[in-house]
Amino acid sequence: MSGSPAKKAPRHQSLTSPTDLQNVRVEEFLATKALSPNSQKAYRRELLTFLAIVNKPFARIQSRHIVQYKVQLTEKLAPSSVNRALSALSSFFDWLEEAYGNPNPTLTIRQNKLPLPPARDLSDAELEALFEALENRPNLTKVRDKAVFAALRHGLRAGEVASLNLGDYDGIRLHIRVAKDDSSGHVPLDAPGRDAINTYLQQRRETGESFNPTSPLFLSHSPVPNTPPRFGYQGIYYFIKELGEMAGVANLTPHRLRHTFATQLLLTGMEPLHARTLTRHKSEVSFKRYAKRALEAAAERAFYRAIGEEPPTL
């Protein structure tokens, strides 16, 4: 018994729907970007949301559609959130134009002008309180916590610290391989920072642990079953939050330690280019907040020198 021959799709009819093709292009684009998992998730969300709303093939998406979408976002989101969405679209359509020759509808779109946010660095008194609080951490985690704090106060993001392996520390510097916006690089550690990490690693050696370069640099003391015992992003975040509560430092986050590192480098008189290399900021605009804070502090010191007074302290 012979069956009916399968009908072939007309030559002009695509076997892949426009939506499927757009999803494929989004994934292709993300594969070309060195993004952290969180950033990749955010990019995917922004792009797929826009494509679902505009509901048109790439070739028919025009600047007016981007403008209309911007208006919709402006009605419900903060200007900074609108800019993040527009930045994702601009990056994607830049890539699409280069890779496939599609017209770029974002070329005439301008992002919102935002005031430069202030640096949220910690005062010397707050840092001292945090170091004192570290001494009161539970004995089980104290040595590890000091080592993690050392990495964070050298400007690493929490996700970068969580991703560090034993092979990423050479006794002098940390090698950041997994980083936001492809901001990988090397960060040298000061003597107290090296001592903190070396002491932690020595403690682990004394337990008989066999070191492997791909093993986590920082271990969790309450690992999830059947997963590597890595001290992850959430664990680091909550550790720093608890440390802030112990020290009486309000609203402490890992990122405030990054702000403090950047500001202190500039306050010492380091060339901004060198400081930015160590913090691995891709955006010069975002780095300017630290330069502004450092200039204000330097001007204040100069003021008190000029009038012959010691700078007052709170």
UniProtKB/TrEMBL annotation:
SUPFAM superfamilies: DNA breaking-rejoining enzymes (SSF56349). Keywords: DNA integration, DNA recombination, DNA-binding, Plasmid. Gene3D superfamilies: 1.10.150.130, Intergrase catalytic core (1.10.443.10). InterPro entries: CB, DNA_brk_join_enz, Integrase-like_cat_sf, Integrase_catalytic, Integrase_recombinase_N, Integrase_SAM-like_N, Tyrosine_recombinase_XerCD. It comes from the Bacteria. Residues 115-303 form the Tyr recombinase domain. Residues 20-97 form the Core-binding (CB) domain. GO terms for molecular function: DNA binding. One of its GO terms (biological process) is DNA recombination. This is Integrase domain protein SAM domain protein.
